[in-house]
Amino acid sequence: MKNTTVAVIYGGNSPEHSISCISAASIMKEMGQYTIVPIGITRDGGWYLGDGDLDKLSQHGRKLPEVTPTPGKEVALLLDPTRRGTIVYTSGDHAGEEVATIDVVLPVLHGPNGEDGTIQGLFELAGVPYVGCGVAASANSMDKEFTKVVLGHAGLPVGTQVVMRAGTTTLTDSEKDMLGLPVFVKPARGGSSIGISKVTTWEDFPAAVDFARTCDSKVIVESAIKGREVECGVLEFASGDVHASPIAEICIPESTSESSATVTNEEVTEPSDGGNFYDFDTKYLDDVINVDLPAKVPESVSDEVRELAVKAFRAIDGKGLARVDFFITEQGPVINEINTFPGFTSISMYPKMWAAQGVSYPDLIATLIDTELARHTA
Predict the structure, then answer these.
(1) Was 325 annotated as part of a binding site?
(2) Domains defined for the chain, CATH in brackets
(3) Tens of pLDDT along 254-276?
(4) Domain ATP-grasp: where (predicted)?
């Protein structure tokens, strides 16, 4: 029986390009039972056949990896339904020749142009199975405005936000009164805490909006939520059953509040107000995070979070996987956001939470692939 051939796609035209590369390297190290076709997407959007050197895709200290163009290695996924799953060279001496015919795509892409429904639409047109959420679920989860609209309509607990569309530069007095201070100013369609600022005085608000708009023309302003920050993984199995992992609590040392930085395009800039939040550096570079796994909360709270995570997954019509982030407040859990392809680096919470449930990293990858192939066969 031939091995399943999997196209692992990483990089992308996204501020989260490097984290995608690191996630892909971690995943491919554990895919010995599969035939892998590695495809890196440059920041400019070019598709290149990878050479299998995972060290190039790994993090070295604070140096982050990058997909770079390789002449003669440009590739494309054909949309021809009679050649479904075919990858071909598009330039050089082998232009037009087949690289491989794949059985399934594992799109290890984070952020815009990878986790927002765009590339999922390409896979739909090509008629190839792909791991993870579909077009609508990906798009709605990527856009924080519509995440809250969908979840709120389903009766799930979400925080208070104001949406600032392109051309809007300030809030009304009533919006400021509703939100209170502090607030978090975020790109509407971003991730990995890139472009986010914590604002404690309205005098700092215009600069925070400008900063968020370096990533997205649409900006979300959220009320700060006082509570413990926890995460829960959701995983769909080939049987169609959907389960939630043990929950994990992110514990940020108070000392980081003096050195937190605001980040865009993976370059650190100095903060305007210091805010103590789970930013890009804290997540990926500083190694200062402590994690309680499972979170030290009453069993009833853990059960409620896990139940809400599955409900949120179903509300967005999710498939495959997601990570749902919460605040546990005095009034109960509040959903912060949904990540439809969470980080898979060696320090990422999603695989760690499933490992705590007894699902190893290789088994987790196999479950994702098997589930998608079973769905496609059905």
Answers:
(1) yes
(2) 5-130 (3.40.50.20), 139-157+226-252+289-376 (3.30.470.20), 161-223 (3.30.1490.20)
(3) 654 433 333 333 332 333 333 45
(4) 148-370
